[in-house]
Amino acid sequence: MKKSRDKFSEKEASYHREQAEDLAQERVHELKQLNESEKDELLSELHIHQIELELQNRELRESQSRLEFVQRQYAELYNEAPVGYASLDQNGLIVRCNNTLATMLGSTPDFIKSRPLVHFISKKDHAVFLGRYRAFVKSPADKFIDVQFHTKNPEQGDGTTFIGRIQGRHITRHESAPQLKNETLLVAISDVTVQKENEDRVQHQAFHDALTGLPNRINLTGHITTALALAGRQNRFGALLFMDIDRFKTVNDSLGHQVGDELLVRFVERLSANLRKQDLLVRLGGDEFVLLLAEQHNDRIQMAKVAKWVAINLIRSLTEPFLVAGHNIQVEISLGISLFPSHDDDTPVDVLRQADTAMYQAKADPSTAIAFFDFDMQERARRRLSLEGQFRIALEKEHFELHYQPQVNLQGEIVALEALIRWHHPDHGLMTPALFIPVAEETGLIVPMGEWVIDAATRQIARWQEQGLCKPEFQVAINISTRQIQENSFATVIEQALKTAAVPAQSVALEITESLLLPNDKRCSVQLHRLSQQGLTFSVDDFGTGYSSLSVLQQAPIGELKIDRRFISGLGSDVQEPRSNLALVRLIISMAKELDMQVVAEGVETLQQLEVLRSLKCDLIQGYLFSKPVSVSHINELLKGGPIIIDER
Ligand SMILES: [Mg+2]
Questions:
Q1: How many Cβ atoms from other residues are within 10 Å of residue 561's Cβ?
Q2: What is the distance between the alpha carbons of residues 626 and 414, in angstroms, rounded to a whole number?
Q3: Cα 418 to ligand 1 centroid, rounded to whole Å
Q4: Cα–Cα distances in angstroms (integers) from residue 227 to residues 65, 351, 358, 372, in the given order
Q5: Cα-based distances in Å from 442 to 364, 437, 438, 523, 608
Q6: Can you tell me the distance from the alpha carbon of 8 to that of 141, in angstroms, rounded to the nearest whole number?
Q7: Is the pTM of this model over 0.85?
């Protein structure tokens, strides 16, 4: 068959050849028939055609050289581009790469070719790379992968590392470029180490405190959310500790902010050294810190124990003072603990607020530095807050009134009065100080309230003296809080009030607490002596419950001791340590006599108590047995009447 086809082709070729030869002979014959002018014309046409061919050839050569130039340029650009390029085949093997990539990888294009890209990625990032590679290959234009590359040059040994960002696109196959047939993906790898470092730094700054480097509030919210979720899923309890430095403002005010800042840095160092790594210490701002414990327990009590143990450890770590800029600074903290979750729908804000509330509780209670949050506490805090608002209004509108409680001598004669404040509350009626003094003290409103009391009492004394109900030596006692006496203007306020009301100093006694008599409180001592020199007397309230040292008692200008009601209540009855109470009261009275002081027994309610006090020769008696604190009109009646006779049934 094949043979017959070849035969046929030979036959055909010979036929065509014969045809061509016939045609050529025909043309030669035609040429011979042409005259001279026709020959010239034909030659001229041929010449033109030759020139045209020449021109076409030149254009072709120029195009060729331009193409070569562009190709060289492309190769140069490809090789020297600022990013590394590699073409990968379907299996992720590198088919070709540019010089930049080879340099970046500390290697040569020859070494790189035919190796998988993952070969040059640090082991620790293999999982990241392989995990994302499939999605990347699917739509490389929308994605990038940041991984650490490890330079591996067999000649240089293991080199350095850099963070490379892999971006890419699919390679379109083209029939005119069969050499690209294996290449499916073109990847560009750029060194983003510096960029990543900057990004990390910005990220770090956004989530950390600049002074101490600790995580900040933004950071904390996310962690509490996670901890809440974890506790919820596993039916466990976690703990958050909220702390601040007591009297930190004093450090800033007296030693300057630089010392304050330095102290905070040292404080954080000390705390951090005493914490477990997995616990999260956060600076909320100022001197407020939060510690979120990593440990969680399915027993709430157990979690509370762990949290308390951590808190105690932290407090212990602060025993040694901090040496900052030549100053020895003793730091104490108050610490509130919130155990969470307390409800299913607790939010990070709830947890934080609860710990904060507990911290304020710890701060308000001098006997402890640690307090756990409970819901009564929250309710108290809420009530306190609302009371504070109402108290401010009461101060503005003077919704207060003074009641007076008589102090009688052993003959039943009223020889002095104690002024006691009452608040006419719009909803709760007449409120006694126990209900609002703590709020007034915490908020500092005790100072303006105290000034109102001083003014009101001195005006009332003036009225009684005008009415002839009291002689100048008849004393009215005014209670003074520690906070008031710490004000530099305290003595001036008293002097001014006496002057305005035209009341002699001897008519007023100031009741102070034992804590004011501590030897190191110079400022108070100065004020006490200044007022004492003008004839005012001081009385120590609730005596026996504080920590007066005898020497201080002797040095301070004290004219009177008021024995605390707790000692009186046990007197004359057979129950509750009567002997020790009796011994103490006897001791106080005899000591007062030795020191030339007057003694008042507070809270006297029974005849038995009166009898004992009488036998001990106590000077004055105050208590419900004679009269509770009463209004001015009632006092007027009492002052007009004779001695108060107690019915000795
Ligand atoms: Mg008092």
A1: 26
A2: 10
A3: 7
A4: 70, 11, 20, 19
A5: 8, 9, 6, 21, 39
A6: 59
A7: no
Closest C-alpha among 642, 643, 637, 645 to residue 404 = 637
Centroid of ligand 1 to alpha carbon of 513 (angstroms): 9
Helix crossing, 375-397 with 446-466: angle to 10°? Answer: 50
- Judge residue 194's burial from the number of C-beta atoms within 10 Å of its C-beta, 0-12 exposed, 13-18 middle, 19 or more buried: exposed
**Rounded distance from Cα 313 to ligand 1 centre (Å):** 40
Residue 591 CB: number of other CB atoms within 10 A?
Answer: 14
Of all residues in the chain, the percent with pLDDT exceeding 90 is 55
The pair of three-digit structure tokens given for residue 555, joined into one six-digit string: 């040095």
Please tell me the distance from the alpha carbon of residue 448 to that of residue 639, in angstroms, as a whole number: 30
Distance 419 CA to ligand 1 centre (A): 8
> In the sheet where 84-88 sits, what is the strand order?
94-97, 84-88, 185-191, 157-170, 145-153
Using the CB atoms, write b or e for 154-185: b if 16+ within 10 Å: eeeeeeeebbbbbbbeebeeeeeeeebebbbb
Place of tokens 């560009």: 188
Ligand 1 centre distance from Cα of residue 623 (Å) = 12
Residue 502: strand pairing partners: none
Q: Rounded to 5 degrees, what are φ and ψ at 32?
A: -65, -30
Residues with Cβ within 8 Å of residue 479, at least 6 apart in sequence: 418, 419, 420, 453, 511, 541
- For the segment 157-200, what is each residue's pLDDT rounded down to a tens digit? 567 889 999 999 988 776 666 666 778 889 999 999 999 999 88
Residue 451 CA, ligand 1 centroid: distance in Å = 16
- CA-CA distance, 552 to 518, in Å (whole number)? 7
Three-class secondary structure assignment of 508-522: EEEEECHHHHCCCCH
CA pseudo-torsion sign 255, 261, 267, 269: negative
Contact 413, 643 (CB under 8 A): yes
Farthest-apart Cα atoms in the chain, separation: 177
Q: Quick: pLDDT tens for 231-240.
A: 999 999 999 9
Other C-beta atoms closer than 10 Å to the C-beta of 198 total 11
Q: Is 560 helix (H, G, I), strand (E, B) or coil?
A: strand
559 token code pair: 């004219």
Question: Cα of 381 to ligand 1 centre, how many Å?
Answer: 27
594: left (phi over 0), alpha (psi -120 to 50) or beta: alpha
CA distance 11 to 5: 10
Residue 454's pLDDT band (cuts 50, 70, 90): very high
Query: What's the CA-to-centroid distance between 611 and ligand 1, angstroms?
Result: 23
562 Cα to the center of ligand 1, angstroms: 8
Instruction: Give the single-character DSSP code of 343.
Output: S
Dist CA 437 CA 357 (whole Å): 20
From ligand 1's centre to the CA of 599, what distance in Å?
A: 13
- Average pLDDT value for the chain: 88
Q: How far apart are CA 196 and CA 1, in angstroms?
A: 75
